Every structure is written in C-alpha cells, then in structure tokens.
Amino acid sequence: MRLKKILMLGLIAVAGMFAAKADTYSRDVNTLPQAARLTLSNNFKAKVSVIKIDKDLGRVSDYEVVLTDGTEIQFDRDGNWKEIEMPVNKGVPEKFLPKEINDYIKDNHKGEKVVGLEKERSGFEVTLSNDLDLKFDRNGNFVRYD
Q1: Which residues contact 19 (CB under 8 A, 6 or more apart)?
Q2: With 0-12 CB in 10 A as exposed, 13-18 as middle and 19+ as buried, what is 114?
Q3: Which among 26, 67, 65 is positioned nearest to 45, based on CA atoms?
Q4: Are strands 133-137 and 142-145 parallel, antiparallel or unpaired?
Q5: Which residues pair with 65 in a beta bridge?
Q6: N or C: which end of the chain has fewer CB within 10 A?
Q7: What pLDDT is attached to residue 57?
Q8: Residues 31-67: tens digit of each pLDDT
Q9: Which of 74, 114, 86, 75 is nearest to 98 (CA)?
C-alpha cells in the first residue's frame, strides 16, 4: 500500500512537470515584450508568421518568432534577441553585428552573408552563407572556426 502511494505521488509529480512546460503559440505581435516588437519593426520587413512562447514552470523562458520570409529570431523573456537565422539568400542586418565582426567577414570572407548569429556568454557565433561557423569574443575579435 505504501509503495502504491509513493508511485502515485511520483506520477503526479511527473505529470505536473509536463503541464508546467506547456508552450503556447500565437500570431499576435502584442504577445511579445516591447523590446522584441521594436527589434522586429525596426529591422525586418517581413510579417510575423508564428510566435512560439516557451514556458518553464508556468513562466515564459523565451520567444521563438518565425517571419513570413523564413527568418527565425529567438528572444529572451525580456525581449532581447538571442539568436537570428536568415534564409541563405538574405543576411542578418549588419547593425546586429559589432563593427569588428563585420570588418573581419568583409576582409576574410568577401561575398559571404551572415545567415546565423547567436549571442553567447563568451561572445558570438556566426554562420556564413557557405556554412562556415566562426566564433568571436565579446569584443568582436575572431577566436576560431567551429
């Protein structure tokens, strides 16, 4: 009998964890924080196709936005961008990259577009249109190819 109660409590706890991780979807830009809305309106012409709102324990952890042109942007819960992925025929707007990264790419990878950009604790990871991944530190200095 006691084992039955322990198993039942365990099942309830697991079910609760899954229920707390309930992601939601929206097409309403107003579900995004103000900072994310400004980033979208100031930098991207395409409209929002879908917004996935990731939740952990009932609290928003981040937003994943897909635009009608295939661009994908991930924002943290405050609306700060974390990652941008563009279609191969487009590039991440240059203003998202530190000047040093833009200069490095223009000097060393002429003609390539930045199609992926991710902010990391240690700096930035950049993906070029030729599928090359580059790592940069917080100051925009080239670190290595990945």
Answers
A1: none
A2: buried
A3: 67
A4: antiparallel
A5: 51, 73
A6: N
A7: 81
A8: 999 999 999 999 999 999 999 999 988 888 999 999 9
A9: 114
